[in-house]
Amino acid sequence: MNISEIMKRLELLITSPIVPWIAKSRLTPNILTWIGLVLTIVTASVIAMGNLFLGGFLVLLSGFFDMMDGSLARFTNKSTRFGAFLDSTVDRFSEAMLLLGLLIYHLGISRQELFVGAISLGSGTAFAALLIFVVLTFSFLTSYTRARAEGLGIACQVGVFPRAGRVILLALGLIFDLALCALLIIALLGFVTVVQRVVHVWRHADKSGRVNL
């Protein structure tokens, strides 16, 4: 028995007694996915502020919601293409948020320093590292959302800022010594592009189409 099989059995052991009760409520798999995302963002904030002990328990709690959305979808036979897309995309974003919280904690950046750095585009190493991490996250998510959607049979060549735009803007930022400004724009437009692709899949996915989660 490999680790994957062990984790699947553990997930079944945890979720099986609870799923029937949740199925009787108005909660849907997608709602559980969104709840898990909000909880993960809170968890990342707790970690960034240095409360690692509480953060550890909150990671487990957010992981519980991550297990429950898929289990509920299978139990209620509501495994849609959009649900599968949303779940996997939110998983990637959630992992990035937790790592960002750890990065902020280990760099020792205060909330005031984050605010001042964002307003002034300060060239400090810590702020630059955070900005690069955010850009990297949305760069991956931009490509991932398209690949995940097309893997589900949904064309997803939408968005205001594909890879070519990132390359050109980064090059201009380096040439004119405005790298941090370019990175900030890339991060913002990358976020917009990811949101556009999520909305696109939501609009075009067959809500009745079933997938194997």
Condensed summary:
This protein is an all-alpha fold. The protein contains nine helices and no strands.
Number of domains: 2
Q: What CATH first level of the largest domain would be assigned? A: Mainly Alpha
Give the DSSP E fraction (strand runs of 2 or more residues): under 5%
| Principal-axis shape | globular
CATH superfamily of the largest domain: CDP-alcohol phosphotransferase transmembrane (TM) domain
- Sheet with the most strands, sense and barrel status: none
- Counting DSSP H or I runs of 4 or more residues, the number of helices is 9
Helix content: over 70%
Mean pLDDT: 87
Distance N to C terminus: 21 Å
Supply the CATH architecture of the largest domain.
Up-down Bundle
Return the structural class: mainly alpha
What is the assembly state of the chains in this entry? single chain
Q: Which parts are unreliable, with pLDDT below 50 for 5 consecutive residues or more?
A: 207-213
**What pattern of helices and strands is seen along the backbone?**
HHHHHHHHH
CA-atom Rg in angstroms: 19 Å
Question: How does this model look, in words?
Answer:
The protein is mainly alpha-helical and 213 residues long. The chain folds into 2 domains: 1-108, CDP-alcohol phosphotransferase transmembrane (TM) domain (Four Helix Bundle (Hemerythrin (Met), subunit A)), CATH 1.20.120.1760; 110-206, CDP-alcohol phosphotransferase transmembrane (TM) domain (Four Helix Bundle (Hemerythrin (Met), subunit A)). It has 9 helices and no strands. The protein has helices spanning 3-15, 19-23, 29-48, 52-75, 81-107, 111-120, 125-151, 163-175, 179-204. The longest helix is centred in the middle third of the chain and has 27 residues, at 81-107. It is globular, with a radius of gyration of 19 Å.
